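Project standup — Tuesday

K.O.: blocked on the structure for the chain from last sprint. Re-posting the sequence here as requested.
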Amino acid sequence: MSSITESKLAQFTQKAVELLQSKGYKEIKADLPDFEQPTRFTEKNSDKTFAPDLTGETLIGKDYFKIVEGDKENMQDVVSKWKLFANLARIKNGKFYLLVPYGKKKYTNELVKEHNIDAHLLKLDAR
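H.V.: unblocked you, prediction finished:
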């Protein structure tokens, strides 16, 4: 189970959208009202679906963003999602960013290193 509430996740997502807009991203997709939803991906031979929290395009490519929720009970799903988004970003000539709320940095660093995930970490503050 995620350690971030739905309202906190929405707050983090809104802050992330503002960050992307300030950095000049185009075609921002986010799981928020008034935004187009990011594309969902279904795992082969399973009913599991994965979606980034945000995507945005630059002149170079498409970047994928996922807010770290600290889900320790479903770590394999978390790793699968992160690897998928890292691969998609590479294919789309972009980068994969993990947006790290306060208190999730150690957890995130350990997973990224242990599973060799090509991700850039950005501190995310909801204030």
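K.O.: great, moving the ticket to review. The chain has one domain: 6-124. The chain is about 35% helix and 25% strand.
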